[in-house]
Amino acid sequence: MRSSSNPAFRNLPHGGTQTYGQYGPPVGFQQPQGGVPGYGPGQVAAGAGDRPMTVDDVVVKTGLSLGTALLFGVVTAIWAQTQLAETGRLSGALLGAMFAGLIVGLVVSLVMIFRQKPSGALTLTYSAAEGLFLGALSGVFEVVYPGIALQAIIGTAGVFIGMLVVYKTGAVKVTPKLTKWIVGAIFGVVILMLVNLVSALIFGFNPLRDGGPLAIVFSLVCIGIAAFSFLLDFDQADRMIREGMPSKWAWYAAFGLMTTLVWLYLEILRLLSYLRE
Q1: Annotated domain spans of the chain
Q2: Which regions are flagged for Low complexity bias (predicted)?
């Protein structure tokens, strides 16, 4: 299986006749004699009653995850806007929920990435946590820049749908060279973000996030990399389906897509705020 730029999809176990790498096969994975019809010889049958994952499985699990994030996000955004309108500041409870969402989302994502096992509970927990964090953040941005949250949601949905069309039509082929380019680009922007963070904390110099021309260019680059990461995420999910991974792994595919969606939304929200100044 080709490596993905998304860490959630790196080093996943393989279905079919492939090898499993250092993590071994999924829990409960059994290789049936003769394989599963429609998936080639030696495909997956994972435990009693499980079946190979399908596109519908990925769509449903991703939809549930996204719906959870939106539900928590909308409620928290309204909460934040109401408090800012009434008191001009966020309460300790809301700030606590915001930072709890940030920390829980980070911890759960690391657990999912390093465990390399599917979990519907953890995927939905991650979605809810990110919804809390992004909702509170979006509520604050919405008070300062009215309408910006909806614009960011529309922009994120547009990029997602556009890249899905690009992938399905084959306009851009996912090749090992493209994968390496995107992985390298992601490592590059992460290093730049860390250097910028250290610079901001120590020297008060924040060129990549200060809203200036360089910050706008950097956000555009991040949006472009996140968009191309969708191609690799789609390809990885597609390969999991073709190799007959157990249906429960659709939760892992949904988690990987959610991490890219969260990153993309944050970058679009930042860019829109820069352009409003």
Answers
A1: 13-52, 53-276
A2: 20-34
Distance separating alpha carbons of residues 78 and 136, to the nearest angstrom: 8
Q: Which residues contact 40 (CB under 8 A, 6 or more apart)?
A: 16, 244
Q: Whole-structure pTM over 0.70, yes or no?
A: yes
CA gap 268, 271 in Å, rounded: 5
pLDDT (tens digit per residue) in 89-108? 888 899 999 999 999 999 99
By C-alpha distance, which of 67, 73, 228 is closest to 160?
Answer: 228
Instruction: Tell which residue, 257, 261, 260, 222, has the closest CA to residue 58.
Output: 257
Alpha helix positions (H), the chain: 55-87, 92-115, 120-144, 148-169, 176-203, 213-242, 250-276
CB 53 within 8 A of CB 12: no
Q: Smallest Cα–Cα separation from 4: which of 200, 163, 231?
A: 231
Separation between Cα atoms, residue 33 and residue 39, nearest integer Å: 13
Given a cut of 70, is residue 137 above it in pLDDT? yes
Contact 1, 243 (CB under 8 A): yes
22 contact partners, CB below 8 Å, separation of at least 6: 11
Q: Exposed, middle or buried, 111 (CB in 10 Å: 0-12/13-18/19+)?
A: middle
- Kindly tell me if the per-residue pLDDT of 184 is higher than 90: yes
Two tokens at 118? Answer: 């599917």
Instruction: Give dist(CA 217, CA 212) in Å, integer.
Output: 9
Neighbours of 9 (CB within 10 A): 28
